[in-house]
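does this look right to u?? pyridoxal-5'-phosphate version
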Amino acid sequence: MAFDVAQFRSETPGVAHRVHLNNAGAGLMPQPVLDAVVGHLRREAEIGGYEAAGEAAPRLDGVYDSVARLLGAGRDEIALTENATVAWQLAFYAMAFQPGDRILTARAEYAANYVAFLQVARRTGAVIEVVPDDGDGMLDPEALERMIDGRVRLIAITWVPTNGGLRNPAAAVGEIARRHGVTYLLDACQAVGQMPTRVDDLRCDVLTATGRKFLRGPRGTGFLYVRRDLLRRLEPPMLDHFAAPWVAADRYELRPDARRFETWENSYATRLGLGRAVDYALDIGLDRIEARCRALSARLRDCATA
Ligand SMILES: Cc1ncc(COP(=O)(O)O)c(C=O)c1O
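got this back:
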């Protein structure tokens, strides 16, 4: 797809009548995303929800391929969720902590994540420690390196915090985590859709994101990536018969893939919208989207300082 801003605008119904800058809240959906959601809802009304899901099965299945392509991951490493918070919680609450285990995080951590740290620290005796920043708010990788010891169980940071325009050095953190064998959970909620998000470059074990912000998908969508070798060791905090088929009266078997973090019932219309939004961003190219975001934000900063 050519980088044609006029075309993108013409495909975005919302820009016809307003200036909308709240992508960090929820971006304006492009028409193909809207069509995917509304089209599926219409089919549910026409032929029934189960029948519509059957008819759309190949496209629904393809959503995992799209998200996997976006992240440079395997489709077996992707779970679809109703938002980023649920994705993050499912992975975090699956991790086991002992008294004295250390959870390292950044100064600008997302509030919901920090509340979960507090609850788990209270329950388990784990301790939360904030890695010093570089003076401008950005996590200092050298300070992180100095904090690592055998009690660090988890590094969990937010790549791009909700407010303020900060961008934490997610890949540098991943390099340190990998070298020391520490699990690395990355909240990429505000980064996905705005810049390339390749899990191998980031070296994260878990990544969580939402659909509705810079990806421009519908509200009520999110996803979870769990690296394959960690996946085998993580049992979700809650299970149903989709995540873990009930195979004998006294036994269930966990699904081998990341869909062990899902449940049986889902919003298929919004899932299709998420898949379409991911494909739309991939067709444009995340490198080109990032270059455009950088150019616009630089222009804005120049105006602010002029
Ligand atoms: C950095 C960050 N993490 C997580 C979330 C939560 O995302 P969701 O509302 O999809 O659960 C947000 C939402 O604003 C966010 O900005």
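The pocket of pyridoxal-5'-phosphate is lined by residues 83-85, 110, 158, 161-162, 187, 189-190, 210, 222 (CB under 6 Å). idk if thats expected tbh
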